[in-house]
Amino acid sequence: MESTRWTQISELFNAALEQPQEAQTGFVEAATGADGELRDQVLGMLREDQTDNTGRVGALEQGAVETPPPALALQSREIAGYRLIRLLGAGGMGAVWEAEQASPARRVAFKTLRSGAIAGRAGDRLEREAALLGRLNHPAVAQVYEAGSTEIDGQELPWIAMELVEQARPLLDHARERGLSPSARLELLIEVARAVHHGHERGVVHRDLKAGNVLVDGTGRVKVIDFGIASALEGEPSAERLTRTGDMLGTLRSMAPEQFRSGAEIDARTDVFALGCLLYELLCGVPPLDVSALSFSEAVQRIERDPPRPPREAVESLGPELDWILARALAKRPQDRYPSAAALADDLAQVLVRGPVSVGPPTAMYRARTFLRRYRGPALAVAAVFIALTAGLIATGFALSAEGRARELAESESLRLSQLALLPKLTALEQRAEQLWPAWPKRLPALDAWVSEARQLTARLPELRAGLAELQRPDAPDTGRREALALVLARLEAFSDPNRGLAGDEAVADAGWSVPRRARHARWLAGLFEPGGEADELWRACAEEVAASPRYDGLRIAPQMGLWPLGRDARSGLQEFAHLGTGEVPRQGNDGSLLLDAKSAAVFVLVPGGQYLIGSQSGDPGGLNYDPLPGPIQEPIQTIQLSPYLIGKHELSQEQWFRLTGDNPSAFVRDKIREGPLHPVEMVNWSTATRVLRQHGLDLPSECQWEAAARGGTTTAFWTGPTRETAIGAMNIVDRSTLTQGASFPDLNYWPEFDDGYPVHAPVHTLQPNPFGLHHVIGNVSEWCLDRFGEYYGLPDDIDPVSTATHFQRVTRGGCFSRAAHNGKSALRSSYDPTAAVPSLGVRPARRLQ
Amino acid sequence: MTGGPTDDVTRILEAAAGGDPAASERLAEHLGVELHRLAEVLLSQRGMGHTLQATELVNEAWMKLFGGLRRDWDGRRHFLSVAAKAMRSILVDRARKRNALKRAGNLERVPLDAVVAAVEERQLDLVALDEALVELAKADERAASVVELRFFAGLSNEEAAQTLGVGLRTVERSWRTAKAWLAMRLEQAGES
Fold first, then answer.
1. Average pLDDT for B146-157
2. Which end of chain A has fewer CB within 10 Å, C or N?
3. How far is A46 from chain B (nearest CA, A)?
4. pLDDT computed for residue A229 by the predictor
5. A208 an active-site residue?
């Protein structure tokens, strides 16, 4: 192709793009005249361009994923105590990382900002703002933890650490992908509005509530991110900032007119406007005003002047009230909008239950119309009156009485509508319950408050049942309201179900313990741990013993909430504890040995802090941690530093898991294997394991913690010695007995004559413990670790290192009943997807000291 | 990430950044090997059946070879231009070879196939794309470079503008025009 030809094509194409779409073809035809080839080419290009990034243009676009290089250079770096693990996204302002904080140990979203993104003294300003934002505490608001500015490679790098939203999807994408119904969309927006209102109550305006800042997490719950960040950065959005951020469109789309006027008041009503934009796009699929093709100043003009496009059918199916609600939320003047996000949420909730909203023609007419829709049958007479009334054919006296009738209807209605308003309250309680972990004494006031609020809701059950019964009479007119009430009733009944409900007394269900149960547990712990309480007494003795023990190098240990000191294990010399949330304190024999049964709690060993040697080497048979046949990436040996920690003496049993979750997912359950109790729980994936453990103040061990404890001070390939034969009596691996289960695992070929007597897993306390008192670190079930699988550590200076790898898979350790002996070597590493549930993979819990 | 870049590669990159065409070629060669190797490593960690993106490989290669260097380092720009070209050439070569092997009914798999497959899944014919790009380059070399950087190295418009040393608007315009033209071209190629 000649470059002159290309110039023609390119210029004509770009000129045509400036024309309104419907005029483009005519424009090109006029411009090309007799040059049919040029015409066809440019028209072809315009057609491709208009596919709006689907089709081939989209495929070309997708080849380009934004990963700005300056951000990438931060991969694996540690900044102010956060290790950056994975780039989640990047834009003009900077990048967002998944990061790991050492203390408290948690994953966070770590936002790094381009240094130019902040006005004034970045560090000071950010810290001050972060302190303010830290006061926001709402399940639907991503929590801001901390902010600051750190010098990296000679440049100031401002950063903000925030709550990590797991499996986040932008709200609009979520709604589209799931094909959510209009009312489900409304419910989500109500949640968003309430979250935003929470911020307003604490004096924080979001200011940048664009679609990308409202996420839905993996459990379908809304999370508003970047609350107040816009003002933390540099006051109001400006043309200059917008162009720099590269997300001009996303931001412009939801900006209120006053945000373009210097000196204009920015308050809650600014966010109300943005919520209106979000609502509009959520329902109609397009933003209220299309500013995408405009220059900045044109866009501002349109936002200040043009009314929103009329909403489409999606809105109509929900009723005319939504038109009015949108009109009020999107009013150009702040004083014409809803005064608060909560007021908007309330009106939207009324639309859901088809009750009267606060907007619309402010006359009895409107209320009457609402009732007409809801009481189709008997209201017909009233309707006739109103038709007559509007036609002006009825005497004034009659009209007045009709209006009185409408008011009366409205009042009797308000009681019933308050029943329907229970729904958002219920949702709010459910969300709050997620935060009420672990069930420890310090959380008692919050737990009690929750329980009493829940009682107020459940107290209305009889009234709701009666109301529904009335609506179910054959002559009852209004099916819409009956369905709505039935929905509320069903939700409330599930909520208060004694066996499965969150407000049930004893319930242990999908969400874990019910809140009353948590409150009871916390109260019980409070008694045990108060000064002079039983546990407190034991802890005093324990702390003295630990402080005096050379094994613990003078460690001063404070009472660990929820753990019951069992004393020193005679063989290992290490302190052991029972975790009171997982069961009863196990009985002990005269020699102090544990006599476990089905009711027993999980037992933890206190592992001393210090230096540990992990990994193996295959070069020097006389050297430490020699292993002539290493598995993948377990060399070289490394010295790591661990602070004292607690790790499970046993794999978690099926009974213990059941007590925590109300569920036993294991493939090999007691009936099937005809054995006694205390078989290890399996078929638990990594994500579930960490979620459940964390609810109870526990966690998975890091890989370093696991190996240090599994070695128990030994430096041979197995803790029992250099060869698999030394481990007989301490390991349960693939063997002849698995054949009796009808299973033939390929690993059997490694050692066909071996028989350990256990077809699948053995009860968790069966075989010989290692020098630290841990059972079954060789075989039985393999065990999840916290770390992502990847390169070895290589960070010798770190205390309590956790892998910096970015891979999806998580480490598993310790071999299992279906694999050969070498999988149980102390340094051998393996991995699984965190979503994998496997019959040969279980959980050994751990806990850090407080 | 442990260890810095090897001195050897750094020297080559510096020479390439200084405008030495022979050094650029050697860097491309070096990268070709590295990209193949990285594809293998990434896939073995994730298992077959996963796809890889070209941009991921280019960034991994950068991290691997120069990860310890200052992030504002100018050499990154030159690296990206070379990497984009290297990525284009190895992907197109592989796609061409796959087509030949498919016709022969004998398809051995190499790790880079995952990248090729990821592109082909989107109904893009890499060989036809390459041919169209050659034609585009004759008429507008810069537009072709923009496509290389955006598509094969996964850069954003801003980064492509920085790498090429031109304005953002220019890149945006070139990218939109080139995309539409290439799409139209591939459409025609698909029909014939």
1. 84
2. C
3. 7
4. 67
5. yes
